[in-house]
Task: structure prediction
Amino acid sequence: MNDQSSSSPLAHSAVIVVAAGSGTRLAAGAPKAFVPLGESTVLGHALDGVFAAGPAQVILVVPVGFESVASSMTGGHPAEVVVGGDTRQGSVEAGLAVLADGIDTVLVHDAARALTPSAQFAAVAAAVAPGVGVIPALPVVDTLKRVHGGEVVAPVDRAELAAAQTPQGFPRTELVAAYARAVDQRVEYTDDAALFAAAGGAVRHVLGSEEAFKITTPHDLERARMILDAVAAPGPRETGRPVAGMVIPRIGIGTDVHAFSSGGTLRLAGLDWPGEPALEGHSDGDAVAHAIVDALLGAAGLGDIGQHFGTAHPEYAGAHGDVFLARTAEILTESGFAIGNVSVQFQGNRPRFSARRAEAEQALSAALGGAPVAVSATTTDGLGFPGRGEGIAVTAVALVHSIAQG
Ligand code: CTP
Ligand code: MG
Result:
């Protein structure tokens, strides 16, 4: 066992990494944990997260014959390696059998959740208490239906549901007892939390993370590869490129198009436009604000509006464009960028803009924490959908620069 200093979030904890499955659905020609991923393997990435979480007893549960390859993957960190069972539950049981003395909290983790952030281990461990198990979970974003054969028989309220992840954490003594009970009963539970609850334990949840998704299918493996490629790729998050002692700032472009609806009140360029019909949209339809968000995120190489504010983030449904702008400015600051300036132009017959230009520029600039924003409007000579009055098209460009390099 490693140093178990009580200041570490995983003090007196063990992490059992179950990696003994065959990966039938992935069908990659090797047990799933040993499938190549980036410059390592699925298990290698999972272990990076585990070891970065802090000192703990680490127990790897692997398929028979993979003991020595698993041992060679720990990067010099001490770890127990044991052979797993026919089921996941059997594999966890094999891991529990080698818990060291002095361990009072056990985290059980799927190797298949290879990109789980190390902070998730600490968050789970910190919430474990006597009689209380903890799982990381995410809110469900899809609309859910109960089905029977080909029929949709009922809607399901997703507010009552959460998608469970790992690591799942438990007090050691109660977890070991709950496993002994399951062995006696010969019952297979869906996960450790269900097994623990069946033995009378309480289970709470903490917020999980998108990155902790389980690699199950070839599509999931591809998703993991893309995430790793994006992190490794030079450029996006790097600061400007120095040329002859001068740092070149970074430019981004964003566009957005929204159709006019038949009612409501238009929200555009951070202002309300009484008497003008609203634009359709997932949020307030402020196409000017949305184009600026994309230009800024693009300039910093930090993705796009869908990634940060899309349907996977229900907390932003119906939010004002100003909220998106303020959060975007924060995201840039957190990544070490300052905004140079933003220039944005919309094409549309309405609203008549020039009289309120200064007001709009002020509102947008304020939402971005003071960065200069220039807004202009143009018509299209009656051509295209903006010319026919069906909607508005917006183009924005933004310049950002690294705070570190000025
Ligand atoms: N697992 C295990 N022992 C088993 C079965 C599963 O240690 N007998 C582990 C897997 O290695 C994985 C985790 O439990 O890290 C979650 O299981 P799952 O995603 O179902 O993996 P596999 O069982 O390997 O995949 P499949 O069901 O597609 O065969
Ligand atoms: Mg399985």
User: Anything to note?
Assistant: The radius of gyration is 26 Å.
